[in-house]
Design brief:
With 111 residues, the protein is an all-alpha fold.
Length: 111
């Protein structure tokens, strides 16, 4: 597997995680009767994952060398933290942490 392919896979997985988190999570929050502020705060995670996924898709085309590594290493902690928190709070019953961890692994391979 080439580093470019690995980073693109990480980007696609990150975008899927963001869309799933945003859509399904908002449905659950509405059903629970949460206020608009809580829902907006929840969507910041989705937005950051989406931006990270788009950046992962753009990295092989527009960045090389040190720039590439800096960008990848800037986004890896965000996904790793999200995976750990997801696994912790769901007691590993929700598979979101697996997808987020896959993003981290593919991004690390693509560095």
């Amino acid at each position: 597997m080439t580093p470019d392919l690995a980073i693109r896979i990480a980007g696609v997985l990150a975008i899927f995680a963001a869309v799933g988190h945003g859509f399904l999570g908002d449905k659950i929050l509405v059903r629970q009767g949460n206020d608009a502020f809580t829902r907006v705060c929840f969507q910041f995670g989705s937005l950051s994952w989406l931006v990270g996924g788009i950046m992962f898709l753009l990295i092989p085309t527009y960045f090389s060398g040190a720039e590439r590594g800096i960008l990848i290493y800037a986004f890896i902690p965000m996904y790793l933290f999200a995976a750990i928190v997801n696994a912790w709070f769901t007691k590993m019953k929700h598979l979101g942490w697996v997808m987020l961890l896959a993003v981290v692994l593919f991004a690390f391979i693509g560095r």
